[in-house]
Amino acid sequence: MKLETQETSVETLGVLETAALLRELTAGLITSDDFDDALAHLARTSRDAIPGVTWCGVTMLRAGEPASVAASDHRLSELDGLQHGVDGPPMAAIRRRELILSTDLRTEARWQPWTRRALALGVHGVLSAPVDIDDHVIGSINLYARDPDTLVGDRQLTAMLLAEHAGLLLAAVRDRARQAALVGELDGTLVNGELIGQAIGVIMTQRGCPAPEALQVLRTASAALSIPLREVAERLVASVARPRNP
């Protein structure tokens, strides 16, 4: 009876650790719109939250762009990159779309150049889990252990849950980044438009404020009056240009 209680406690602890990891990861990424910053946060959070993990790295392949790499320790970033081509656990996980595990690299016969470099850096265990973000971005989360035989048992389940959750969060980050870029382009178009630019100039002169604040004044007026932004600008410019009675 005592043994069963101990086993249940260990299992419960693993569930609580995983829940805390996913909650912390969500809190850190839920408002981010910078993809590379999100990858760095993912690496740091995973390293700190998963027992037995000494370092964590993230490898991302984006269509038409160089590979993105984030690492909790910059000395190990080369293990997550493409210096070794397709030879290594990160690329194997991406290529095969499955968990790649080596609990003791000292006896590992796969990925020999990569393994030699990992051992030289003090890595003795690795667990790479594939991450699916969207049609254009795939990657892997790579967990590294200083001690052999530590990435076993529930660590594999944790890695799978982490990869699935991270994929959803990173997809949302990419969506927000695209939306922010679109808004930025739209703002640029508006500010460069002659009429909008004139209206912004009027507000800047009247209020002594910078252009972004003047644009926000126009937007606020547009929302309050329920009329298009261009019409607000047109009315403002017309009112200033109207001749005054002597």
UniProtKB/TrEMBL annotation:
It comes from the Bacteria. Residues 176-237 form the ANTAR domain. Keywords: Transcription, Transcription regulation. Signal peptide: none annotated. Transmembrane segments: none annotated. PROSITE patterns: ANTAR. InterPro entries: ANTAR (IPR005561), GAF (IPR003018), GAF-like_dom_sf (IPR029016), GAF_ANTAR (IPR012074), WH-like_DNA-bd_sf (IPR036388). This is ANTAR domain-containing protein. It comes from Micromonospora sonneratiae.
